Amino acid sequence: MIEISPSVLGADLLRLGEEIELVETLGLQWLHIDNMDGHFVSNISFGPDFVAAMRQKTNLFLDVHLMLSNPRQYIAAYARAGADLITVHAEVTDDVEDLLRLIAAQGVKTGVSIRPDTSPEAVRRLLPLCDLVLVMTVQPGFGGQSMREDCLSKLPVIRKMIDETGRDIRLEVDGGIKMDNAHRVIQAGADVLVIGTGLFQAEDPAAVVTALHEMAEGERCAP
Ligand code: DX5
Ligand code: ZN
To answer: pTM of the predicted model, to two decimals?
Structure first.
């Protein structure tokens, strides 16, 4: 079963409450929240108070993506704010295990993310501590970029690593997912699709959700 995780970064921030209601009405379960510090990436967005506001508004599964150079300092605050899953970047420290243990100690699910130029090997040793691996298909920092499809070749590699652990680890893709490339993302092995502008700025978001579910179902039934 694939999950669609709409990225709030692509929503109309002046109508945020209605945008969250739209996600619920579409029957989706996840909400992706991008947090940027202006240092790990060249943009700034959201923060623990924003996550707390989302938590007040909805029971959606809050999929919190930290693009921060020093996530260690903020993990507890995001957990208190009500994050269901916290994803940190593998590039920020040599001791990602420490971050993942800290997230798990808060009773929150753990994720690790890699940028487009980071090898899939970076996640191998982390899998015993992960509930999710997030493969970026754009340089993190901004919504609305074109997907780097070359990054999709990492997915079968990571899927195989996941299968070898025997653990139930989700494989999420983030960046530039649109109707015309989503089938390749699903085919490559993703089971959580982050979609920002492709959903919130679509003329008919319900049609996008239906099409994504149909693609996933088609892939599941493929020989
Ligand atoms: C980029 C963010 C993404 C972004 C995706 O740094 O991590 O979550 O919002 O937006 P789209 O789907 O517009 O590429
Ligand atoms: Zn993201």
So the answer is: 0.97
